Automatic annotation (TrEMBL):
Name of the protein in question: Odorant binding protein
Signal sequence interval, chain numbering: 1-32
Domain of life: Eukaryota
Coiled coil region boundaries: none
Keywords noted in UniProt: Signal
InterPro entries the record matches: PBP/GOBP, PBP_GOBP_sf
Amino acid sequence: MAPAALAPSPAPLLPLLLLPLLLARTALPAAARKLSCFQHDIAPEVTNIPDGDEFELHAQVCMQEANVTEEEVHAAFEQDPNHVPQILKCLWGCMYRKIGLLVDGEVSEEVPAGVLEDRLHEYEALRSNCGEKVAAAPDECEKGSVLRDCAVEVTSTVTPPPS
């Protein structure tokens, strides 16, 4: 994806929703460093993505909650890409909760801080298309997986409202 300086408008909400993927594919200190570039270059409109230290803290807490090690997370990505291991689902669920997309097991009714006004339509589409699916999932791990999958589908098809 082109850096923000080359893009005509801010990036969509999708990078925020794929944040746990960034966590799972990099070592924590490297992930914290990469996040600054990720946030600045790809998702400048999202200000609630934690900075390096806060991201690392969220990642460590979520890994503890999921009872997994960094090595186990890396190993999970070596498996069949069509099968999402439970540990990744749990990390996604936890990270979405930490950044305010999941509140009390549902897609947040409140627009998370940092979503720019010209991107509200994306969040509304996410909430209206994914909310019931996420709420129906039995636990935070499945909710994280459902939200991620639904978000990828929804944000790839959403068009801005007419000006």
